[in-house]
Fold:
Amino acid sequence: MKLRFTASGLVLLAVTAAAAQVASHAPTVFTQKPASSDPALAPMTPTTKPVARINGTTLTEADLVREEYAIFPYARQHNGIPKELVPEIRGGAMQMLVFEELVYQEALHRKMTVPPAKIHQAELNFQKTFANPEDFNAFMQSEFHGSRQLLDEKIRRSLLIDALLRIEVQSRSTVSPGEVRAFYDQNPDRFRIPESYIFQTITVLVPDKATAEQVKEGRERAEKELPEARAAKTNDEFGLLAEKISDDDYRVMEGQHKSTPVSQLPPDVVSTFRKMKPGEVSDVVHVGQEFTILRLNAHTPAGEEKFDDVKAQLATQLQQRKTNQLRASLDQKLRQSAKIEEP
Structure:
């Protein structure tokens, strides 16, 4: 029943998911350039070095860094992108960068335009993201050599990308109530709720290949702690005891286990829980290399989620899935007739 958590693993999982999407965020206009001299972080000074050519248009390292920061906005707080995350982030950023350029070129091919008033309003909104005029002016100098015309061109590009995506993706990704209901009816397994338990543990570990004497000592230690565990009247009291005496990783969470399906629990634990009521504390249970005291906090019987309870969330999920499919289809279509060169 051991479980270990690592912050870097959770971040990596999030990054990998983001990289798997085709342009899953709004088109990037620009980002402010941070700098770092820390060798443990990815290089943060973007350059004009080419990273791709799309139908003759050159995309640079600076463009790619903007996309990386769109995927990993925490880079500013970390003063860069940690090196172990660079491959996933850069791969996703390159995919997004190429996709957005293809969409932009398609918008130009269709002779789409943006009203000057809309560009002006977008510029005003962008200025408001800076703490003061001095910061905005410094950004203008570093990114556009002080040229409002270059800034407006970048804004126009982003708005054209948005406009074409609204036509090809957003307007076609609507999911009707009938589609939501049909998905619910056709996928009953997805909405079944497994029998599960929420509980806390105090665990005494014995070594691998423990001798009979070591196993005996482990049980005796757990039995010694049992009266105090049973004297705990609340989750918090039991949790403070777990934090103090438990050997396993859950002690840092006061012995608390989130809702766990029966299928993920050892048979001896399940049979013990079936004899208990919420708030009760078990005898010592021998599971593998552990002697465990269990406190049952909640029991959820097997059942199924009702349609009215899940329909709003399900509609959002289905619309996002449809959006991703339409983006991927558009990406594939645009790539078929494009000349894409990556060094």
In short: Residues 7-175+322-341 form a domain with the Triger factor/SurA peptide-binding fold fold (CATH 1.10.4030). Residues 307-336 form the longest helix (30 residues). Confidence is low (pLDDT under 50) at residues 1-26, 31-44.
